[in-house]
Amino acid sequence: MSIAANLASVQARIAAAARAAAREPSTVQLIAVSKLQPVEAIREAYAAGQRHFGENYVQELTAKQAALADLNDISWHFIGHLQSRKAKELCDGRIWVHGIDSPDAALKLNARAAGRGVIVPVFLQINIGGEESKSGIAPEEAERAAAVFAACPALAWKGLMTIPPQAEGEAARTAFRRMRALRDTLSKTHGASLALSMGMSADFEMAIAEGADYVRVGTAIFGERPP
Ligand SMILES: *Cc1c(COP(=O)(O)O)cnc(C)c1O
Fold this sequence. Notes:
By secondary structure, the protein is of the alpha/beta class. The protein has 8 helices and 8 strands, in the order H-E-H-E-H-E-E-H-E-H-E-H-E-H-E-H.
């Protein structure tokens, strides 16, 4: 199937999942995860109407951003692990950063962004399954990290991001539900309207049922990633 056909199918599944949860389909934003895919594939998705793209590696993101500078209404989302020495390159005030996984990373990004006079939209990454292999803040630490986030003037705190345990079915659903509860609590404490970035090719419909605002889908749109 073509990228355009895959996109249409994913969009239809998003809309169906949203309606089944009594949600307006337009409240769910699709981020097409284009990591390791060529710029031609991004152009194809763009031509089919896709505007939000996700990348995991800073260098790859900035190279693609430059190569696709003619597509001026494209939105970039950095969804990988942020190393502080690369933070500067993400501070153009347009890239959204989904993977802030420590108060220290937030402070460093804030300092970089302030130095450049921009405000960077960010998500706090939560390790909801408590898995050693995954980055993110433990749910119990979230309040403390949130206080740091909220006090960073050069960061626009958009919400929480997670990659749940890969287990099929109930374990992932439980993780998504806990994310939603945590989001509700933090939104209340901080008087903010925080969004949820969760759901990938294997589980985006379940994530939408549990309240995802941003889903990050790669394989279902672009096919398997090249090695
Ligand atoms: C690669 C990646 C995705 C997309 O995964 P697919 O299974 O290809 O849909 C989503 N989120 C993050 C953080 C990723 O690293």
